Amino acid sequence: MKATVLLGSLLALAAASAEVFFEETFDGNWADRWVPSKVKEDLGIFDVSAGKFFADSEVSKGLQTTQDARFYALSAPMDKTFSNKDKDFVVQFSVKHEQNIDCGGGYLKVLPPGVDLEKFDGETKYNVMFGPDICGPDRKVHVILNHNNVNHLIKKPIIPPSDQMTHLYTLIIKPDLTYSVLIDNKEEATGGLLEDWDILPPKTIKDPEAKKPEDWVDNATIPDPEDKKPEGYDDIQALIADPEAKKPEDWDDEDDGEWESPMIDNPDYNGPWEPKTIPNPDYKGPWVHPEIPNPEYKEDKDLYVYESGNVAFDLWQVKAGTIFDNILITDDAAYAKEFAEKTFGKYQEAEKEAKEKFDEVEKKKQEEEEAKLAAEAEAEAENEEVEELDADKEVTEESKSADEIVVETVTPVPEEPVKEKEAIKDEL
After folding, report:
1. 85 to 103, 153, 333, 386, 412: CA distances (angstroms)
2. Whole-model pTM above 0.85?
3. Cα dist. 262→233, 265, 384 in Å?
């Protein structure tokens, strides 16, 4: 089994303290563990594949989208329903956009228990939605948390990689209301649930009864009443005639009109006059709106807690080919890290080398195809040239044949000359 090969003695030691609620490497009878949604008839079909390039033909196999411009909906029950109260909540999986995705999702959803998986779709309630979403230049890692049936999107931008390699995404939610997002086992974002999501109303709000006093002075400076505009200041023009310009020698006033020198900026012009400013003696500083406790705020130390029972993919992809693998839901970040090293880190360099070889083969194929097309185009051009020459030759032959046609000329028989009248008389 693929899972047996991947998990070594180190993971076995880590697992002694960790609780794993879901672990999927898409080996064996994976289809028996996953439930296709029956909400729509034209949903995209998933298959298992290592892709076009891979580190290992078996280990690299994962769940792949196979049809362009489709919605995908697939889910699976966890080994058991669990609550992450007083525990870390870790969601981890890998994504490989080997099709160089142009627009589509690559995220995973964690669902509560009791969901009818055959009716799962985009409207089904979820606890957490996590993973990359790419559409053109818009790239983000979604971290959406549901609280009281409202989905809250993280406010902090997290940018995912946009290449064709496999990347690992890890979300860790802690009981102290902090979180971390890792990409390829490196921390990309961290902070607090209260600060980076608008899950709860603010603790304080501006006092609706408070208003800035009408006599409040918040201008730090005022025009200097002693400063006067210099005499003649307004007579200085913004533009003046260029003193270096000369009338062209070939300028004809009658044909070209009266010559005028081009205008340039006046170095003596300093713009509209404004008086100098001085500190305002009545300045009180910026007015700060007083705040009061928000009556709608209610502390919730358990807002990180979820009852979970299923995982699911709910995706739209314009160009299919994404491969998902090594899904892990656990309560132990250390175990997740070791699992990542065994299933992802170990194969990074091998996949990179496989990608380079794949690119070389593809480049050679492209060059050969381009050479083939060029040869075909050249041959076609030569055939057209030969056909033109043959056509010209045929026309020439036809003209020559017409010139060689023999026209029979009838030679008139010379008539006997008319005898003179006198000779005729003599004969008579």
Report:
1. 36, 22, 15, 84, 131
2. no
3. 24, 10, 61
